[in-house]
Amino acid sequence: MERNRSGKVIAVIALVVAVVGLSLGFAAYSTYLRVEGAATVQTDTNNWKVGFSTTGTDIEALNGTNTVNGVNATTDHTSDGGSITVSRYTITQATKPILTTKTGSSVSYTLSVLNKGSLDATLANVTIPTYPVTCAYVTGTQSGAGTDGWVEAENKTTEPYAGTKRDASTSTISDADCNAMFGVTLSINNQPYTATTTGSGTLAKTTGNHPVVLTLAYKGDAAADAAAANLTGDIEVTIQPIGVVYESAK
């Protein structure tokens, strides 16, 4: 079991990125189009062709998807990075990673935004909610050892993963406490974004490539440890929708 400096048990958090609502929006000439969620939008033209890429060379096919595995920096869980499903315009969670309340615990997913059209594009804005993550207690049993992103919060060293009863907590975790523990960073073209802001940078026509890294991490400071010390069982952490808008260059 893990303990903080005051000797209280700190529950090991099972991080679950249930839905990552990262989406692309576009504006061409005087038309503004926002792409949200898993909507299918036919914007595949020679002039305007901007979208996510898992290869760094080709945009994802319309109505097609590919998978990106997470890189987990968490001690004892480097093989538990989970994965995301990437379409041309959206990212959603495929399999779930595991994080803990130890400093340095994080998971990252790397992909790109490419421009294969004949118009230059600019990153207009990035929209991140005031509270980027929400937390909820996990109850019930786990089927499948170590595969669903849950880790036993108490007696972790002696109880098995599969079939272990979760702490049936009826408490709720406030958004303030959840976001004190965990933070989200979206890096685009090597510029980190953690809050809603105006974007910057040109995505050149035909060959433009903006590297994208989505990171979810335990903050590991005094406020994070204080919130974690009050947990009574395993929790799920969900990233709230994030918006990224590219526009045709003025």
Write the layout of secondary structure elements.
Elements: E1 2-3, E2 9-10, E3 22-28, E4 31-34, E5 50-53, E6 66-69, E7 71-72, E8 83-86, E9 90-95, E10 106-115, E11 121-127, E12 133-137, H1 175-181, E13 182-188, E14 191-193, E15 197-198, E16 202-203, E17 208-218, H2 222-228, E18 235-239, E19 242-248
Parallel strand pairs: 3-19
Antiparallel strand pairs: 1-2, 3-4, 3-9, 5-10, 6-8, 7-10, 8-9, 10-17, 11-15, 11-16, 11-19, 12-18, 13-14, 13-17
Could you give a short description of this structure?
By secondary structure, the protein is mostly beta strands. The protein contains 2 helices and 19 strands.
Describe the protein.
α1 crosses α2. Strands 3, 4, 6, 8, 9, 11, 15, 16 and 19 form a 9-stranded mixed sheet that branches. Strands 5, 7, 10, 13, 14 and 17 form a 6-stranded antiparallel sheet that branches. A two-stranded antiparallel ribbon has the order 1-2. 6% of the residues lie in helices and 38% in strands. It is mainly beta and 250 residues long. The N terminus is likely disordered. The protein is elongated and about 55 Å long. A hairpin with a 3-residue loop joins β8 and β9. The protein is built from 2 helices and 19 strands. The protein has one domain.
